[in-house]
Amino acid sequence: MVRVLLRIVAAVGILLGLFVVWFYASYGGTGQPFPRIGDPKPRLQAELIATLPEPPGNIAVSATGRVFFTYHAEGHPAIKVLELVNGKPIPYPNMEMQSGDRSKPSYGAVFNIRIDSRNRLWSIDHGEHGLLGARLVAVDLGTNKPIKQIWLPRSVAGIGSYVQDMQIDAAGRMIYIADIGVFSGHPGLIVVDSETGKARRLLDRHPAIMPEPYAVKAQGRLMQPLGNSLFWFHPGFDPIALDRQGTWLYIGPMSGKMLSRVRVADLGNESLSPTELAARVEPYAERPQADGLTIDNEGNIYLTGIEDGVVWKLGPDRKLTALAGHPKMRWPDGLSFGPNNMIYVADSDIPDVMMQSKAHMREKAPYYLFRLPADGTAAAGQ
After folding, report:
1. How confident is the model at residue 3, as a pLDDT?
2. Cα–Cα distance between 90 and 125 in angstroms, integer?
3. What is the per-residue DSSP string for 246-294?
4. Closest residue by Cα to residue 147 from 168, 172, 120
């Protein structure tokens, strides 16, 4: 009996050892300081528009000024999608949708939301990193009722995937999704036809979306979720923006200094081989480590600067300026244009959310939503 127990203990020890080796090889390594890119002193102070009890993740504002946002999925909230009504967060469209019931359209592990040109609020549910299946859910903002659910096949969003940010084309049909691939180690782009449900996975592990080994330093703290160098926080593909003309898709890793782009026409050309498509990706400009992106009609790209707590503007001349900040802005995350060319910002405060307890998050409350004037024009929704 003792011999059997010793063998079990030895086997468990070997498995744990192999896990540590795999984990370190996948997520450990160095945490290099990120080079200074741009002057972080903001030109404007953002306007604080809402105070929240839980950390928000992403935000989408309709053409009529309705403000929708998520509570961050890493905080495991009971209420996932909300509308800001008279300054108060209200479950949207109701509590029933917050159930996560996967037998019908509902909200599970919701990360990003976007409003398309057909007045539909889309959400992306990463399905517990693909274990339960990732899905898109659309709610008609006119009726406040769910109208569509699209399951992403495991061939494009399998176990270990982490679908996060997304963009929708001007016709409200094609959806472009960033899979950060934290656990799979395979960042990739997912393109979904919302009319047919067809999904394709592209640019898997392309250098333009792979993380670089930079340490993320926010609020003066290094992002080391396990408290040591076993796991440095340097995520891959997250920032994504579709230009307003539908010509270019801008992509890059959160932990990285290059923003790249690829033509939308090339993404839709199924005759291109993976190698041929990969060769069509081109570097665009250096930029700070960023989480969220949006873009205006004039070609200005707005980025949430996670290290400096500011919103940056990357102009069509590829020059970088710090547009706006706020003393209470801790980790600007999702962006959305609203009416009157205002940009809305969800400040998620990731250092106090990821791998933190509910008690810790309550202690660090409140959390905030902001807005600021853009330097250009754009339709609301994303």
Report:
1. 65
2. 20
3. SSEEEEEESS-SEEEEEEHHHHT-TTS-HHHHHHT-EEEEE---EEEEE
4. 120
Three-state secondary structure call for residue 145: strand
3-state secondary structure of 233: coil
Cα gap 333→235, rounded to integer Å = 14
CA distance 243 to 259: 14
For residue 276, which amino acid is it? E
Residue 30 phi/psi, 5-degree rounding, is -90, 165
Question: CA-to-CA distance for 358 and 100, rounded, in angstroms?
Answer: 20
Rounded Cα gap, residues 375 and 159, in angstroms: 41
Confidence of residue 81 (pLDDT cuts 50, 70, 90): very high
Q: Which position has the higher pLDDT, 25 or 342?
A: 342
Domains of the chain (ranges, CATH numbers): 31-373 (2.120.10.30)
Residue 124, both tokens: 């992306």
Tell me how far apart the alpha carbons of residues 114 and 136 are, in angstroms, rounded to a whole number. Answer: 11
Per the CB < 8 A criterion, the answer to whether 180 and 112 are in contact is no
* Least reliable range by pLDDT among 15-24, 35-44, 340-349: 15-24
HSE-up (13 A, CA, CB side) for residue 199:
22
pLDDT given at position 6: 60
Q: CA angle at residue 58 from 55 to 60, to 5 degrees?
A: 130
d(CA 184, CA 182): 6
Q: Which candidate, 80, 82, 83, places its Cα nearest to that of 109?
A: 80
Element (H or E) spanning 45, and its range?
Answer: strand 44-45
